[in-house]
User: What shape does this take?
Amino acid sequence: MPNTATLEINGQKHEFPLVKGTENEVAIDIKTLRAATGGITTIDPGYKNTGACESAITFLDGEKGILRYRGYAIEDLAQKADFLEVAFLLIFGELPNQEQLEEFHSDIKAQSLVDDDVRKIIDAFPKSAHPMGVLSSLTSALTAFNPSSVNVNSEEDMYHAIVKILAKFPVLVAWTLRKKQGLPLDYGDNSLGYVENILKMMFKKPNEEYVQSQVMVDALDKLLILHADHEQNCSTSTVRIVGSSHAGLFASISAGISALWGPLHGGANQAVLEMLEAIKEDGGDTKKYMAKAKDKEDPFRLMGFGHRVYKNLDPRATIIKVSADKVLNDLGVEDPILEVAKGLEQEALNDDYFVSRKLYPNVDFYSGIIYRAMDIPTDMFTVMFALGRLPGWIAQWREMRLNNEPIGRPRQLYIGETHREFKNIKKR
Ligand code: SDX
Assistant: This one.
């Protein structure tokens, strides 16, 4: 393959380097395009054909349904690793040995208190507030209580900010849930594992001994691993571009939470459950919803289906679907919604509209069924997605900063009014 691409404009040829990644992906390096062509740029709404960066964190092949974190297959990590190990892998590039993992966890535990004044902020929210809005606000507020974590330039300062957010974010998640439920906001228990502690903070009742369920621990651990990173998705790109102005890690993560909230992105897991509930209420009439999803006049989409990159089964959906059966069985939960989901999936996988557009179930299609079996409220599902995605956001932000990437500032094609003289209001 030649190592350049040639662009001919108005009879003039311009050569641009072809760059190849370690998985043989090829990109045209257009860093010199504007200068070489006298100001010509590209345009690509949604960046469907545009790479924003070179990254060594996550590789996915949408045609083959492959997902790897730092070279390790998602299937292996979901089966054999735990969430904190995967967080270390994503952020620092290697699986930790026992000593490194213990040191990482103890550094996190040392930061697991959240300033009590944060309670005043959460108290100011109405109980009806959507948890994603609360979480994004509280995460940004962490900046006020941890000023040393704002302008971090050295790797050491970044490390301190990283262990702080990994420590405090689960507390904010638990407080967001418990605030809605009118339960006291307490701290975790540093004698527990990372995921065990999250579950205890979320679910411990003040008047009862908390009994850990290994089924819940394993289920949440696996779900968090499966959500941990996904290369340059909408919310991760948001974290990177906010961080590219050298805004702090907490502020960048807060922006990522807001991007994830959208129903086309992480908010889809909540929208899937609401859709499945509506279908069930409708007597299981999946055909009606399939027709709505295919009707161009109807804004309704089959939530949990389709993906910008996967044009094959999302490997995470495959794992979660198997896990859903096991978790519900182990928890002794009978949820008719699971059968509605499976029926809908089968219909869509045999429907030409979906097959021809390569629309398959994505990570959000089955995850809510497990969260629901764990007694997590539907409007907290995207918060759980954010909890899983946190290490990926951190890893991508750290990579962007360590690579000294330039501030993100896309160009545009102006299509508005050309110059015109100002008119006094009396003449308009
Ligand atoms: C996540 O990017 C990531 O990696 C994200 C994520 C991650 O881990 O970070 O994987 C997490 O966000 C998963 C996606 C969750 N969102 C949903 O489930 C919402 C429903 N899905 C769609 O809105 C849609 O599939 C997107 C947003 C996910 C992808 O949209 P694209 O890539 O912009 O595709 P498109 O809108 O151009 O659709 C192509 C065609 C269109 O039809 P035509 O114009 O060709 O006739 O497919 C149709 C669309 O109308 N289509 C759907 C559909 N998704 C696409 N039709 C009905 N139902 C759907 N769900």
